[in-house]
């Protein structure tokens, strides 16, 4: 994959960045918010973290890292393979994947140039040690700047709620993966149509367009329709929402609305899912 990867800024055209994505991941830098201590910008997978004491920043970071490990653990084999993360943010998950899972190469893709700049700074030591094994490249989920059949593993952690075109993402994932390659993804989805309709009335990130109320069933059907086989879905909200709300409860917040995510989960509007699917094999 190395010889085909474009360098930073080498692609002359990029899809427009949605306005709220531009705002929140641009100069605002969501990774600096206390609710996302650690910089991974995900809600975290909290299994095994004690619930009988106040949570610490070390707990928060562990939860964020554990979500990456859960997703990456869905690949049956990683050592020596080539991986792509779509929506890599600060790129900390790419560095974790390289360090802990033994990939030959990891390419982080993000639509926002400011995030990529931060990723290169945050992971400067890893980039210096492994200049041929870790790259950060600008691109969108529906326009991945990589050649056909150039990756073995493609993953995304808490980014697909921002993707404006899930069919386009499914098409690109199927194109980029080699035959028999695997896609694994985690994020929150509406449980059904009624949830998708109700979420913008409850959560500002849906009403302002930062998060999109994608329905989990629609997404899995989309993957199947683009040639993915053995599409598997596992709800993991029991290890996400309550513990994350505990973290929010002890974190200084300018507004209490982020705690409505737990309400949305408890009332059945959304859940957090781990999705895995296999690319078609050649006949």
TrEMBL record:
Enzyme superclass (EC): transferase
Residue span(s) of domain Methyltransferase type: 84-184
GO-annotated molecular function: methyltransferase activity
Key words of the record: Methyltransferase, Transferase
InterPro entries per UniProt: Diverse_substrate_MTase (IPR051052), Methyltransf_11 (IPR013216), SAM-dependent_MTases_sf (IPR029063)
Gene3D superfamilies, A to Z: Vaccinia Virus protein VP39
Domain of life: Bacteria
One GO process term, biological-process aspect: methylation
Entry EC no(s): 2.1.1.-
One Pfam family this sequence matches: Methyltransf_11
Protein family per UniProt: Belongs to the methyltransferase superfamily.
PANTHER family according to UniProt: METHYLTRANSF_11 DOMAIN-CONTAINING PROTEIN, METHYLTRANSFERASE TYPE 11 DOMAIN-CONTAINING PROTEIN
Name listed for the protein in its UniProt record: Class I SAM-dependent methyltransferase
């Amino acid at each position: 994959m190395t010889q085909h990867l474009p360098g930073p800024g080498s692609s002359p055209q990029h899809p427009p960045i949605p306005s709220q994505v531009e705002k929140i991941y641009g100069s605002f830098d969501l990774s600096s918010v206390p609710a996302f201590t650690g910089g991974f910008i995900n809600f975290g997978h909290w299994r095994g973290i004690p619930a009988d004491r106040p949570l610490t920043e070390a707990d928060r970071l562990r939860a964020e890292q554990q979500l990456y490990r859960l997703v990456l653990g869905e690949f049956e084999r990683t050592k020596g393979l080539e991986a792509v993360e779509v929506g890599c943010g600060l790129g900390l998950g790419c560095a974790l994947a390289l360090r802990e899972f033994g990939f030959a190469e990891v390419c982080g893709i993000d639509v926002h140039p400011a995030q990529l700049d931060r990723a290169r700074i945050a992971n400067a030591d890893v980039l210096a040690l492994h200049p041929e094994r870790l790259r950060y490249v600008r691109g969108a989920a529906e326009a991945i700047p990589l050649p056909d059949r150039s990756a073995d593993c493609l993953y995304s952690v808490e980014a697909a709620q921002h993707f404006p075109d899930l069919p386009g993402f499914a098409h690109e994932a199927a194109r980029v993966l080699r035959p028999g390659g695997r896609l694994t993804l985690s994020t929150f989805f509406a449980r059904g149509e009624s949830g998708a309709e109700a979420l913008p009335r409850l959560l500002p990130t849906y009403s302002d367009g930062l998060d999109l109320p994608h329905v989990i069933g629609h997404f899995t059907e989309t993957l199947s329709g683009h040639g993915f086989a053995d599409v598997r879905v596992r709800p993991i909200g029991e290890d996400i929402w309550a513990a994350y709300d505990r973290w929010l409860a002890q974190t200084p917040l300018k507004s209490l609305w982020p705690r409505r995510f737990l309400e949305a989960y408890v009332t059945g509007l959304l859940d957090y899912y781990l999705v895995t699917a296999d690319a078609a094999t050649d006949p």
